[in-house]
Write a structure and sequence with these properties.
Among the domains are: 83-102 and 113-166, 2-Layer Sandwich (Alpha-Beta Plaits); 230-365 and 396-426 and 443-486, Alpha-Beta Plaits, CATH 3.30.70.660. It is 28% helix and 16% strand. The chain has helices at 3-7, 12-22, 116-126, 196-208, 226-230, 252-260, 312-324, 331-337, 383-394, 397-429, 433-439, 468-477, and strands spanning 51-55, 64-68, 83-92, 142-143, 152-163, 178-179, 236-239, 264-267, 284-295, 298-305, 357-358, 441-446, 449-453. The strands form four sheets. Strands 3, 4, 5, 6 and 11 form a five-stranded mixed sheet that branches. Strands 7-10-9-8 form a four-stranded antiparallel sheet, covered by helices on one side. Strands 1-2 form a two-stranded antiparallel ribbon. Residues 20-68, 173-220, 454-487 are annotated as: Disordered.
Length: 487
């Protein structure tokens, strides 16, 4: 009879008693020793390595309490797992964060400055999808673009190498971006988890498993459900609808005329914020489309381009607000794009970051986005399996959709409640808009914010800042000290 058969009917308590009876007896009691920093235990006494004894007093007749030894956590060997290159579509609310990009500076609590990428890295390390302590450099991370402090995103795309659940045996090696482990997984004996007796039992069990079995039907290829594992805390400009109270009313036709002048490849140095630490010499960018549309009772300004400079979109909408308020002509856009006559930017207010949303990152050809873990194609499945696999592919996305819909309804209720307070204020004290508009120049900057000033000074008559060459030269002359602060 095999060893496995002898002990297979015993309970856990019976097995522990059997092991204690087999231990060699000792007449000497082990002397108390200070805790050792290693994970190894002495074998000089009965029950050594199973637990430790603690005494509440040192006198005669003191009682001892048996404490279960807590095993240290097993080290996670990331190199023994396969990896895979994937793209993630990320949506986030930008209000609580200091921008998208991870910041290397530390706060007093030695925590990463709150950014979207810092939260993403925490989730990746917690789920062991990337190797802890290596940062984004260790997983080949890159992103499609970046957003600044307070800016939200609906369609940010990042790509990186992550741990994969696919194996060579289930077709993982046939995937375009899949890598086999760089180190072999240690056996149970190598990590000290199996005794000699257990090894014998495992061998006996393995020998019996060599009997031919009925082949199982092939199961669908399953990958880690990356979006479900990583779900952590939420270019499109939303403008107030003309049907709502706006000070002053915006002329969308004039704004569209100004937006049309943005299309094409231009030097946008006068539509951005300069940063000498980046040493950017080429400020030429291409705008593909710039147009307004009505969506859900809001007016949306869509700006589509191949790339954007720092705060470029906020400067664009700031200028268009001036045009829509009839304080500037649409030709102001052409003048600011004429860097021969205007080599440096005049001073003007850029748009508020709150309405700004990165809406989508485009790829040719398009990417196949998934939420659950199914990693195959529909044509590979027999019809009877397609429904069950469809549910696995969705992987709880219906629940996420319900959560987002609940958030949307909550936001609408909050808006209605704030509107009630505003209605009460206006009915009690009056709106005050007529007096303000008649004595001052008022124009919006987005996010419900307005600028109130006296006599308006045209943008092209205002003082100008430094040229990009001057900003870069001064930064180099100061020893190349990196710009401090957050974006």
């Amino acid at each position: 009879m095999s060893t496995a058969t002898i002990y297979s009917h015993l309970s856990r308590e019976e097995l522990v008693a059997r092991l204690a009876a087999l231990e060699p007896a000792s007449d000497e009691q082990p002397q108390p020793k200070p805790p050792q920093p290693t994970a190894e235990s002495s074998s000089s006494g009965a029950g050594a390595g199973v637990g430790v004894s603690a005494s509440s007093s040192s006198g005669a007749g003191s009682s001892s309490k048996r404490i279960r030894k807590v095993k240290p956590a097993k080290p996670f060997n990331f190199a023994s797992h396969p990896t895979r290159h994937i793209a993630l579509l990320v949506a986030y609310h930008g209000w609580p964060y200091s921008g998208l990009a991870i910041q290397s500076d530390r706060t007093e609590s030695d925590e990463l400055i709150p950014t979207v990428e810092a939260e993403l890295l925490k989730a990746l390390e917690k789920t062991r999808l990337v190797e802890a302590g290596k940062g984004f450099e260790g997983c080949g991370y890159s992103r499609c673009g970046r957003t600044d402090r307070g800016v939200s995103g609906e369609g940010q795309v990042v790509d990186l190498w992550v741990r994969s659940n696919r194996k060579d045996a289930d077709g993982g090696a046939e995937l375009v971006s899949w890598r086999a482990p760089t180190e072999a997984k240690p056996t149970l004996e190598e990590v000290g988890e199996v005794s000699d007796e257990a090894s014998v039992s495992a061998s006996a069990s393995a020998s019996t498993s060599e009997r031919p079995k009925k082949p199982l039907p092939p199961s669908p290829a399953i990958e880690f459900p990356y979006p479900r594992l990583l779900n952590v805390p939420t270019l499109q400009i939303r403008l107030p609808s003309p049907t709502r109270s706006v000070v002053p009313p915006l002329d969308l036709e004039l704004m569209q005329q100004g937006a049309d002048l943005l299309v094409g490849e231009h030097d946008f140095r006068n539509f951005c914020k300069l940063d000498g630490s980046k040493q950017i010499e080429n400020h030429s960018r291409r705008v593909v489309k710039a147009y307004f549309e009505h969506v859900d009772g809001m007016i949306i300004f869509n700006l589509i381009g191949t790339a954007f400079l720092w705060h470029q979109v906020r400067h664009v909408i700031g200028v268009l607000f001036l045009v829509g308020s009839k304080l500037e002509q649409p030709s102001l856009v052409s003048s600011l794009l004429d860097v021969e006559n205007y080599p440096s930017k005049p001073q003007y207010q850029m748009g508020d970051p709150l309405p700004l949303t990165l809406h989508e990152c485009g790829y040719e050809p398009g990417l196949d986005w998934r939420y659950g873990g199914y990693d195959g194609t529909w044509s590979d499945l027999p019809p009877e399996q397609q429904e069950s696999v469809r549910q696995h592919a969705l992987g709880g996305s219906e629940s996420l959709e319900r959560d987002l819909e609940s958030m949307r309804q909550e936001a609408e209720i909050r808006t209605w409640q704030i509107g009630g307070a505003l209605r009460t204020l206006r009915s009690t004290l009056g709106s005050g808009q007529t007096a303000t508009a008649s004595t001052s120049t008022v124009y919006p900057t987005g996010g419900g914010q307005v600028v109130i000033t006296g006599k308006y000074r045209p943008v092209l008559e205002r003082p100008r800042g430094e040229t990009p060459d001057e900003v870069n030269r001064k930064w180099r002359e100061k020893g190349g000290k990196a710009r401090k602060g957050l974006e």
